[in-house]
Design a protein that fits this description.
heterotrimer; A mainly alpha (201); B alpha+beta (202); C mainly alpha (199); A: 201 residues; two-stranded antiparallel ribbon; 9 helices; B: alpha+beta; five-stranded antiparallel sheet; two-stranded parallel ribbon; 41% helix; elongated
């Protein structure tokens, strides 16, 4: 079994769910126009991935094979509803801003993917760690996209004005296509560096 | 017990669902009062924001809101307050956007000479396109905009119309339908406000 | 009673296909979109399957929402209920198609299991709920979103046929260039918004 630090490196870098597998972007790419929204959204994904991996691992010997997928979906949906309830009660503005995208965490392929690929065959705590680190890898890429989009689209970082008032915001950064372009560039950069590392090794 | 048997599968699925739902309904019930409180606070905040009254803390919102008069005319609630020697009237509205309802608050001077401001409470327009109606640059166009012939028109995007006396505001690039919907909502709401305010007794 | 009901189903239909395409503007259904668009024939099959399932499940979830969840005050359970009803509907559809036509099963049925986890399906149901659509609006919106998704995947797979044979920087090959291509498509689709402004 891999050590926690090896899992960390693997999930954040060498098999990062986004730039190696382009998984799970549907639920969060739409909210990357602002850093704060992205932060909360990816924290939600991390929370759900970690806890559902933990729970799946804990219950794996009890779950009948025939209903495995549906029980996993139930577990994931359970945690997503908890996130939804918490947001509505404690961060009402955020809850409104994210709208239906919170619910879409359920269909984020990363969560089900980690539950199937890792939690099914590993003990609970390390599964939770695997889920959390996958979430962090995901968070890192989306925050990078959101940083550029918010900085150039609004001239702000987390809502604070950083660029001078004379800065003309780039409207393209606020509209959906920019998220695709930035994601493509990040995948490009990540893969190029990785290819170099591979060639060096 | 055989874990692959039908009985076990059914019982297991049932028990798991039951426990989850039980926990969720408990969580939902305990946070319900908080959610309702938040909703009321958000409503008060939007009304103050539309009227251009500054606030920073939730306590201040409640304190400022208590100074706003509420009047009911023809089953419509209006909010009224004197600001800088002018009478400002605000009204909540719901209109059809491109995708779903757009809810908000519109504030005008009581003589219907200018709009004071708008606040969008809830909308479902496309993020990054129509969703930009909640951004300050869009809403700020209605700060002190003159009402010309009973309406504020939404022009084409990027006209750069910064003249608050023109009665025209910029549309949003790539969101023609949402911009048009906002135009319709503004026209209808100003009409409604005119009917009430010109009918006297406000 | 509700402002949404004023929305014209036709404008909803065209907007969901083109100017606010579920995939290009809302980023939904990306996972299977990128992996399947390598091949045109599979893209066509998946596009059809998504369209059928979207229309059916949006209708079913509308009924569940309005006749079960809202009367019983159980709206907070909607995520679980929607995803289970989608899984069940997909399973049923697979069984029906298998019985009815072997040919259809081969062209459509094999894509059905992929669909339960396609975020576009759950996404459309959630949008339908949050926007308070009527039954007709829900069906039109489901159908339009499905057709929009289908159109997008067919266009992308046609473009990928070309880009697969082009010289591309090594780091950009595969997902990288695909994502950037989708970005250009998204820009083009948004460009239609001026054209369809006539209500």
């Amino acid at each position: 079994m891999s050590s926690p630090s090896a899992i960390l490196k693997e999930n954040i870098w060498t098999s990062n769910p986004i730039f190696m597998q382009v998984l799970g972007i549907c639920s969060a790419l739409a909210v990357t126009n602002l850093l704060a929204n992205t932060m909360i959204m990816t924290l939600g994904v991390t929370f759900v991935t970690a806890l559902s991996s933990f729970t799946v691992s804990l219950m794996k010997s009890l779950i009948p094979r025939k209903v495995r997928m549906i029980v996993q979906t139930l577990i994931i949906a359970f945690y997503v509803i908890i996130v939804d309830i918490l947001l509505r009660a404690y961060l009402p503005d955020m809850s409104r801003a994210l709208g239906p995208y919170v619910g879409l965490i359920i269909t984020n392929c990363i969560i089900m993917g980690r539950a199937e690929a890792f939690a099914q065959s590993n003990p609970p705590l390390i599964s939770a760690w695997d889920g959390a680190t996958s979430g962090f890898g995901y968070m890192a890429v989306l925050l990078a996209i959101a940083f550029v989009r918010e900085l150039l689209g609004f001239g702000t970082v987390f809502g604070f004005q950083v660029l001078p008032g004379s800065f003309e915001p780039w409207i393209i950064m606020v509209t959906p296509p920019s998220a695709f372009f930035l994601l493509g560039i990040i995948i490009w950069a990540g893969k190029t560096v990785m290819n170099r590392e591979g060639a060096a090794a | 017990m055989n874990k692959q048997s039908l009985l076990y599968t059914v019982v297991f699925t049932f028990v798991v669902s039951f426990v989850f739902v039980l926990f969720l309904s408990f969580a939902n019930e305990t946070t319900r009062p908080l959610v309702e409180l938040n909703r009321e606070l958000a409503r008060q905040r939007s009304i103050l924001a539309a009227m251009g009254i500054p606030f920073s803390s939730p306590e201040e919102v409640q304190q400022q809101f208590s100074e706003v008069e509420q009047l009911t005319r023809d089953e419509i609630t209006l909010f009224r307050r004197q600001i800088d020697g002018r009478t400002v009237v605000a009204k909540e509205f719901v209109g059809a956007g491109l995708w779903g309802p757009i809810e908000g608050v519109l504030a005008v001077t009581a003589d219907l000479e200018r709009t004071i401001g708008i606040e969008i409470v809830d909308q479902n327009e496309t993020p990054g396109l129509g969703g930009r109606i909640t951004e300050d640059w869009f809403k700020d166009q209605l700060r002190g905009q003159r009402i010309v012939d009973g309406a504020v028109r939404v022009g084409s995007p990027g006209d750069g119309d910064t003249d608050p006396d023109g009665g025209v505001m910029d549309a949003i690039t790539g969101a023609t339908r949402t911009s048009e919907s906002m135009g319709v909502i503004l026209r209808d709401e100003l009409q409604r406000l005119a009917d009430i305010l010109n009918g006297g007794n406000v | 009673m509700n402002a949404t009901q004023l929305i014209n189903p036709f404008s909803l239909f065209f907007a969901s296909i083109i100017t606010s395409n579920i995939l290009l503007a809302n980023f939904l259904g990306m996972c299977s979109f990128i992996s399947i668009s390598k091949d045109m024939k599979s893209s066509n099959g998946l596009g059809l399957a998504v369209t059928v399932v979207l229309t059916v499940t949006t209708g079913i979830n509308w009924a569940i929402l309005n006749y079960v969840l809202i009367p019983l005050n159980l709206e907070y359970l909607r995520f679980i209920v929607f995803i289970i009803s989608i899984a069940a509907a997909v399973q049923m559809l697979e069984m029906i198609i298998d019985r009815v036509s072997q040919a259809l099963y081969l062209s459509l049925g094999i894509f059905l299991p992929l669909i339960t986890v396609n975020c576009a399906i759950l996404g459309v149901s959630l949008f339908m709920e949050i926007r308070g659509y009527t039954f007709v609006q829900s069906l039109v919106y489901g159908l339009g979103s499905g057709l929009g998704w289908w159109l997008a995947i067919m266009l992308l797979s046609a473009i990928r046929k070309k880009t697969d044979k082009s010289k591309i920087a090594p780091g950009l090959q595969g997902p990288g260039i695909t994502v950037i291509t989708i970005g250009f498509m998204a820009m083009a689709f948004i460009g239609f918004s001026g054209m369809l402004a006539v209500q």
